[in-house]
């Protein structure tokens, strides 16, 4: 059934739905891609939206991720982690690239405006707002437990999969997933107060 999240709606065994679909996608199976899309589109959009923030830009990044997924599904290595972790890592990297690209474009525009003698956007205001946002994120991260903070930092700032985080911290994968979920929920609540 289309639009159902989780593995229940895709007709595959529990826990291996995304992996099986990804193998089929690597073979050019359009139906498998549609099923995989239904399974992952929500988590991918949520992750990209948190990083990019702008809804229209987020939708563009998700489309780029899906296109990359179609083209590079054969690169998935189940020995390195789950399919969902691999896909979310692709999404996170693409979202970070978009943010960096937008920042670089803004800096180029500012340099061009300075060369042309035109007043640029209020650089001081932008810097202050960015600094306040960074400080708010730091403050919220400090409210997490050490394990939650380490897990979130490794996954979302350093780009590790859950499995790689578990290996780096010498912890069971289930423990890392639980700490990540709890940490992200606490962060979401804390950062919600910044809006």
UniProtKB/TrEMBL annotation:
GO terms, molecular function: DNA binding; sigma factor activity
Keyword Magnesium: no
Keywords of the record: Sigma factor, Transcription, Transcription regulation
InterPro entries for this protein: RNA_pol_sigma-70-like (IPR039425), RNA_pol_sigma-70_dom (IPR014284), RNA_pol_sigma70_r2 (IPR007627), RNA_pol_sigma70_r4_t2 (IPR013249), RNA_pol_sigma_r2 (IPR013325), RNA_pol_sigma_r3/r4-like (IPR013324), WH-like_DNA-bd_sf (IPR036388)
SUPFAM superfamilies: Sigma2 domain of RNA polymerase sigma factors, Sigma3 and sigma4 domains of RNA polymerase sigma factors
Domain (RNA polymerase sigma factor 70 region 4 type) ranges: 134-187
Domain of life: Bacteria
Pfam families the record matches: Sigma70_r2, Sigma70_r4_2
GO BP terms in the entry: DNA-templated transcription initiation
Domain named RNA polymerase sigma-70 region: residues: 43-103
PANTHER family documented for this protein: ECF RNA POLYMERASE SIGMA FACTOR SIGK (PTHR43133:SF66), RNA POLYMERASE ECF-TYPE SIGMA FACTO (PTHR43133)
Family, per entry: Belongs to the sigma-70 factor family. ECF subfamily.
Name of the protein this chain belongs to: Sigma-70 family RNA polymerase sigma factor
